[in-house]
């Protein structure tokens, strides 16, 4: 029953998707805009005035807790990060490009912020693309005013304190600390919500979140 409900939702979602994208933009329109974007270096912060910082709004959604190892204090989570920022260089006048409302650009061809997790056990980057296809098919979405949205799903292990005194009713508070290698006058993070978004969190057999 639940499965049917989910499937229905997906179908409805894709109908809406098709609808909102039936604009009169042609292949040429999209190619022209893509060409314009390619002339902008992906290595330069998307600010007209390079002394301005980029504010990155972060929404973290916890998909599930895969495991928690009490002995080592290692928490394994599947999390989705949605990053929003404003790009001052990648915007366009919709009427010049067949009313194209959204442009997708592969991450290797555009500027994205690098985010790291301070208390990650093995790797520290949130971006765990493990092959070229993965990287090539991951996009940043821009609207015509230059609002950028980038979503990345990540499975990572974080180190947390292990306090098992009240086992099996133990409670752990775990922090996932995001940081960037850039200086704070270049990039600043801002959480969209005060807490991790957990509406879609799957419960774990051993742990309730
Ligand atoms: C860039 O921004 C800085 C700080 O706001 C300002 O002092 C500087 O004059 C700006 N430069 C230009 C070229 O607008
Ligand atoms: C966008 O382009 C159209 C047609 O070239 C022009 O009339 C309009 O003023 C432009 N809008 C902006 C915000 O530049
Ligand atoms: C682009 O997205 C931003 C933020 O959601 C919004 O304020 C802006 O109106 C959007 N621009 C267009 C042209 O839809």
TrEMBL record:
Q: Which domain of life is it from?
A: Eukaryota
* CC annotations in GO: membrane
Domain spans labelled Neurotransmitter-gated ion-channel ligand-binding: 34-188
Gene3D superfamilies (alphabetical)? Neurotransmitter-gated ion-channel ligand-binding domain (2.70.170.10)
CDD domains named among the record's database cross-references: LGIC_ECD_cation
Q: Tell me where the signal peptide lies.
A: none
Tell me which Pfam families the record gives.
Neur_chan_LBD (PF02931)
Q: Name one GO molecular function term.
A: transmembrane signaling receptor activity
Protein name as it appears in the record: CHRNE
Q: State the organism of origin.
A: Mytilus coruscus
